[in-house]
Structures are given as C-alpha cells and as structure tokens.
Specification:
Blueprint (H helix, E strand, L loop, with lengths): L5 H27 L6 H17 L4 E4 L11 E4 L6 H6 L7 E5 L8 H7 L3 E3 L4 H16 L4 E3 L17 H9 L3 E7 L1 H4 L12 E5 L13 H19 L21
Parallel strand pairs: 1-7, 2-5, 2-6, 3-4, 3-5
Antiparallel strand pairs: 6-7
Amino acid sequence: MKKLLPWVSYLVLIPLMAFVTVVCGLLSLLFSLWDKSGRQQHAMAQFWAKLMLGIALSPVKVVNPENLRLSTAAVFACNHLSYMDTPALFGSLPFQFRILANHYLFRYPFIGWHLTRSGQVPIDQSSMRSQIAGLMRGVASLKAGMPILIFPDGSRSSDGHVRQFMAGAAYMAIKAQVPLVPLALIGTYELLPMHTYHLTPRPLRLVACEPIPTLGMTTKDADKLTSRLMETIAAEYYAHSSLNRPEPLPESQAKVPSGQL
C-alpha cells in the first residue's frame, strides 16, 4: 500500500493513536488498583495493541504458532525495528508476559505508569552493576513462571537491518534454565521507520522460531548462544524482508562481560 499522505498521518492517525494510548493507559491504571497480578493490565495492553494495528491498517500473521505453546516460562527475543514492534508483539503473542525495557521509558506519563503498575522489568544500561540488577529481576520473573520478552539489539534499527545483539536474553535464559525463543518480526520498519511519523500500512509477519533449550548451559555459553540467536532471527528476517542480507552480520556483543554474567 502506498505511503499515506503526510497530513493523514500527522492530523488523523497519530493523534488517534495518542488518544487510544491515553485512554487505555488510564484504564490500565484503574485496573491496577484491584489487580496486583498484572493480568487485567496485560489484557488491556493486548486490546490497545490490536487497536493500534487496526488504526495502522497492518494485520500481523504469526508463522509457526506452535513454537509459542510452551509448558514452561521462556525468554522471547525479537529484533527491534520500529515503535510499532510493541503493538505487533502484544497483539500477536497469545499469553501473558513481561517486557525487559529501558529504564527511561518508565519515566513517561501513562506509558511509564502502565509499565510500573503492570510489573514490567526496567533495565538501566548506564553501568555494569545496574544492568546485572535488571537482568536478575528478569530471571526472578522467569523462575516465578512469567515469560519475558526482550529486544536483544537494545534499540530500533535505523536502516531496517538486524543490528548487533547483546547477551542479556541468553544470560536470563541460561540463569533461569528456560528455553530461548527467537522471534523474527518483518514489516514494521517499512510501516513506521525511525525519524518519521509517516505510516505505510502493510501486512506484518511474526515468525516464531524453534525454541532453543538451555538446560545444562552455563553463563560461559552466553556469547555462543547469543550468536546462535542472532543468526536464527536474521535468517528468517532476510528470508521474508525486501532487504538484502549483509555479509557478514554484525558480531553479537556481550554487553556484560561473560565472566561476570
């Protein structure tokens, strides 16, 4: 579908998305007064996500949904392309989960309030100690039976290509001894790339790859597991993306040195 006229995005769709976000955020806060589990807030987030995808005229097709049906908690790791990644994932994953998110997002009105009250996991990457503390909060959630969703590349891609992965997803999966599930999201970069609010509606695709078991692994395996995670996501992404795969891929990065994981 051709790119919508700028005024349609700026004067109609973006304000409508902002309005929906505020209303759903307020309802989520209201639900949090009596629901301390976060279940109703997650349901509201899923409802919000489907509204956002509907406004953007961009349905999501889930490929290999059987890989999402696990009997245990798991770390779900997805490439990060756009602000629309979050609605795409909340609107597609059919279970309750928590996200590992940059700590600064928790400071924003409505979004930050929802993140805090619904039990999402902040991570501060300004120092090694604060990063490890955030990852350990994620491990605690996993051990309590709550799946974790993380963007291992840390921030959105500026050119649509898969970026360098950090070792946090692998670290949490290994520490909690739970599966690591690669997710390849395709189409959100073209829908809403960085540095613009011009929407280009299109069908989106979420490929759920085969879970990677971590039983018996130690944190010394985190770098190797991160490389495997990145290769798996990149292979699916470039198989369905309009972009050509660069060779070689960026090397994965242990943001926290593996000896201290």
